[in-house]
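Help needed: design a sequence for this.
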């Protein structure tokens, strides 16, 4: 064989794809877990499309979940991120469309369908495997998993798409509501996020200064926030505000919550007595280790005409 003088050198090995996020189902198909190559993970229960765990790369949990939370579809999950739709709280007096619904509606008590996953680079740096993963879930008026109580109480044709996106340093949840009915309907939406903290007495919440709020533990009176919030007793407030909400502990920023098209934020902590009264709230002093910061559109109603859609989202970033 004749050696060619200009024989090309062998090709540099084609670099492989960077490691990809993995998505796994539990054996009973009730849970979906997504993990980034760098170790961050989320777990979503199909019941309610409830995010029940969000861990950073060192496996530190960021969401509070009651040790007595029911994960078997018998009641809404106490912790994580239950989804509130189409009514927030008990149905308000005089609102006929929602009057037969249970507290916080039926999205959190229906079994959602997993629609699929997608991945993308979040920073363009392939070498670090800086990827994100998005899980999509669906629930419609025609779905088998729709809570029958919800179907009976709210007989509209609708479609919901809920997307949960995990990045290395943040989590985004986004809901699209579409009216597939001939009639208009009213709805409210809220993402009932239970954030995990170490000691609620060291926590401050900023970003709501000068915002007006409805104080649900003071006869639903309307007040104006002055300065930072500290949790020193049962707290249940519906703020109307723009801008990020920052949760700090001991002066260090734990979470920065930003919102898209969600003009309200509920700040909730049940404190001692209310925690005692909730059978699925454990440990009873767990109120010291949680804080609900709940972005939503609940101050009035989103009225959707036939074919209309509403989209709202929250992003919870770790740190500033
Ligand atoms: O016990 P539930 O139905 O999960 O609701 C928990 C809390 O949810 C909050 O969003 C409400 O503002 C509170 O009033 C309510 O107590």
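Sure. Designed sequence:
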């Amino acid at each position: 064989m004749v050696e060619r003088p200009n024989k090309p050198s062998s090709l540099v090995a084609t670099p492989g794809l960077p490691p990809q996020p993995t998505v796994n189902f539990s054996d009973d198909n009730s849970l979906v877990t997504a993990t980034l190559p760098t170790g961050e993970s989320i777990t979503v229960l199909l019941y309610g499309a409830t995010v029940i765990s969000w861990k950073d790369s060192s496996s530190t949990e960021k969401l509070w979940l009651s040790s007595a939370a029911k994960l078997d579809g018998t009641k809404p999950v106490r912790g994580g991120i239950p989804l509130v739709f189409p009514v927030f709280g008990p149905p308000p007096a005089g609102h006929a469309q929602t009057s037969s619904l249970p507290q916080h509606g039926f999205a959190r008590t229906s079994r959602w369908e997993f629609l699929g996953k997608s991945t993308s680079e979040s920073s363009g740096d392939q070498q670090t495997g800086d990827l994100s993963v998005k899980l999509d879930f669906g629930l419609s008026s025609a779905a088998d998993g729709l809570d029958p109580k919800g179907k009976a109480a709210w007989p509209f044709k609708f479609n919901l798409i809920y997307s949960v996106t995990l990045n290395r340093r943040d989590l985004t949840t986004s809901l699209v509501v579409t009216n597939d009915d001939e009639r208009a309907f009213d709805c409210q939406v809220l993402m009932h996020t239970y954030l995990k903290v170490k000691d609620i007495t060291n926590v401050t919440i900023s970003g709501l200064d000068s915002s007006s709020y409805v104080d649900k533990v003071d006869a639903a009176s309307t007040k104006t926030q002055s300065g930072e919030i500290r949790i020193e007793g049962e707290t249940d407030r519906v703020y109307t505000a723009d801008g990020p909400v920052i949760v700090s502990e001991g002066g260090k920023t734990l979470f920065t919550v930003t919102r898209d098209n969600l003009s309200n934020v509920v700040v909730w902590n049940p404190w001692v007595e209310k925690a005692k009264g909730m059978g699925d709230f454990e440990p009873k002093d767990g109120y010291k280790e949680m804080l609900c910061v709940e972005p939503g559109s609940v101050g009035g109603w989103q009225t959707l005409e036939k074919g209309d859609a509403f989209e709202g989202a929250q992003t919870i970033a770790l740190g500033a």
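The chain has one domain: 22-318.
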